[in-house]
Amino acid sequence: MSGAGRLRTVVAALFALTVVAGCGYGSERVDTGADVEPSGPKLSVDEVRVGHFPNLTHATALVGVHEGILQRELGGTRLSATTFNAGPAAIEALTSGSVDLAWIGPSPAINSYTRSHGKSLRIVAGATSGGVRFVVDPKKIKTAADVKGKRIASPQLGNTQDVALLDWIARQGWKVDPASGRGDVSVVRTDNKLAPSAYKSGSVDGAWVPEPTASLLVAEGAKVLLDESSLWPDRKFVITNLVVSQRFLTEHPDVVEAVVRGSVRTNAWINAEPGRAKDSANEALRALTGKALPDEIIDGAWPSLTFTDDPLAGTLGTQAEHAVRAGLMERPDLHGIYDLGTLDAIRADEGRPPADDAGLGVS
């Protein structure tokens, strides 16, 4: 086996360990958080299980669950929600059948689709763009050049922010072993909820993280070195998609339609009522974590987020290229990763054009 092949084998093994660990400590079963009970005729299952993160980049799920929007679309079929700390853990749950649909970032979706030879999942809708920042200790890092030799946190090996950080490091001309995180910059995989204490203790000098973690670090004295949206054309890039296992999509298209419709309607409500939506997302976080975000934290984080059911498919291929350059995977074939038929039917009902799948839709 070549050196590159051995590296990918090591990365895959480490990836497997992280996702297995993530399904234990890294996941938590939660109730719907809403007063809406299942009502009316059941769909083709008694219960649908969805996964998401306690992050503001997953506000579509936070608000949709908390406000009961998703449950109302499901009628008599009960909604059951589980939270995860990073995408690889959510993917493992989707693969094992522990959840049926999940809101996740692009990198874990790409990895799962590639490793399963196109058989694991489909992306059925977009959810969020933006909401990711690279924050650093201003006493140690004043410019991008100062990052060399420092310890920078990312949420988990192979997750979307980890890939983005590794790609940014490579673009500076520096070398990092993707499996161990060692090199010209030390990439320290750190659970989002532990990142503020790691920064405060000096264990890390910065972090490439989603909201609200980035704003929580800023409250600890960190400064924003860059907003990831500044690296993308039109400042738009997919950070959260809605995915479904192919088995569940084939067997229960009516349930998938209800969840997609609920996701679309949730984003419409968020965009129409941003103040109420922000409060709802914060109340959902309080229910999940035991503590709401201070006003200054959520007020600072919310404007960096764009909520859209457009999956921004054109940016997915670019993120896959980032993973390839980072040494986390070979060049993937992503044809068929999108199935936007249900989303497009919903958009057509609303007088909107179909979403662009960038040529990566099912045949």
Short recap of the structure:
This protein is α/β, with parallel strands linked by helices and 363 residues long.
What key phrases describe this protein's structure?
ABC transporter substrate-binding protein, 363 residues, disordered N terminus, 12 strands, 2 domains, 42% helix, D-Maltodextrin-Binding Protein, domain 2, single chain, globular, alpha/beta, ABC_SsuA_sub-bd, 7-stranded mixed beta sheet
Q: Note the gap between the termini.
A: 35 Å
Structural class: alpha/beta
CATH architecture of the largest domain: 3-Layer(aba) Sandwich
Helix/strand order, N-terminal first: HEEHHEHEHEEEHEHEHEEHHHHEHH
Account of the protein in words:
- With 363 residues, this protein is an alpha/beta fold.
- It has 2 domains: 243 residues, Periplasmic binding protein-like II (D-Maltodextrin-Binding Protein, domain 2, 3-Layer(aba) Sandwich); 103 residues, D-Maltodextrin-Binding Protein, domain 2, CATH 3.40.190.
- It has 14 helices and 12 strands.
- The strands form 2 sheets. The protein has a 7-stranded mixed sheet, sandwiched between helices.
- Helix 1 packs across helix 4, helix 6 crosses helix 13 and helix 10 packs across helix 11.
- The protein is globular and about 60 Å long.
- The chain starts with a helix and ends in a 14-residue tail after the last helix.
